[in-house]
């Protein structure tokens, strides 16, 4: 019985290959129905192949590897795809660029390579658009339910202010800094104005809000004695 099943499977695969007639003796050619499947023809004999999960086949690419991101390829009527092999909510397929799984977070997206995700953020007030694989203006992305820029909060409660910060020339500060409320040697910075991180000044320096960077304590009146206890200990 098992032998019969194996033979049936072999014949089915052979029949599938036999149905595809190579347009040329050598080359790679698209599957008529499935966008991530293709055929490699060698001496007129077709071998069925499939792109890595998340990528699709583009016969027009002048490279040996013709699998590319879906937003770069016109699949036409070839709408079928292999079953997703995603590794997490961030990577619903093993390869590609994907929106944050929370639909309210429109400025963050993930680059997935073989199931490993890398979190990325759009600059300014842009939103990620899966159809183009890029960050675009909100009205172009046309995503609904997007929250405000401040989508993350640190463990101490700090979150990036919604107001866009400008320098003395009126230009937008892409990664603005903010003073820590209780620690002169620390400060906050917001990547792309939206993702909060905590920074630490080098030893002996304190954060100076006026110049937006770490400075000598003598230049920051409210923090001039911040290291006094340490200096007293060293002198004793």
Automatic annotation (TrEMBL):
Residues 19-77, 88-148, 157-225 form the Chitin-binding type-2 domain. SMART domains: ChtBD2. Pfam families: CBM_14. It comes from the Eukaryota. InterPro entries: Chitin-bd_dom, Chitin-bd_dom_sf, Chitin_bind-dev_reg. Keywords: Chitin-binding, Disulfide bond, Glycoprotein, Repeat, Signal. The keyword Glycoprotein applies. Coiled coil: none annotated. Residues 1-18 form the signal peptide. This is Chitin-binding type-2 domain-containing protein. The lineage of its organism: Eukaryota, Metazoa, Ecdysozoa, Arthropoda, Hexapoda.
